Amino acid sequence: MSYYADLSPYEYLSNQPDMVNIGWLSAEYSYSRGAVPDDFLRALLVWPIDDSTLLRGVHDCDFCDAESPLRVPAPVERGYVSLGMGEFHVASRQGIVYSAPSLIVHYISSHQYKPPMEFLEAVEWRLSECGPDELGGRFPGLSQ
Ligand SMILES: [Zn+2]
To answer: What is the residue range of 85's domain?
Structure first.
């Protein structure tokens, strides 16, 4: 998978709006590690993948032998999500849009990746802004 430094300008796919890279990791570069809040990881597990990025190539994890698409248990109706295809797009309160490969969920849960604080804040802001009820089917795991 292509490597892009956290918070660098997005360039993986053309015809996308201005975005900022998050979690485009590679074994050739070190990355920040640490714990992230459970709510944050649970939100990403049910975060919708941007349709325009789906099936535009499969990303494999650079740190282990897991092959994409990776099936990960998730609080959704079918009980799992597939990672390694497509991107999450997250808009912050300040209007910055972050692009993260869906594999970021695996990087966090299996390789201790800790994304930049401003990305954590953007996800949490979206959650608080929408509220679990309004999110409905988009965040089924958070509606309880
Ligand atoms: Zn891995």
So the answer is: 20-131
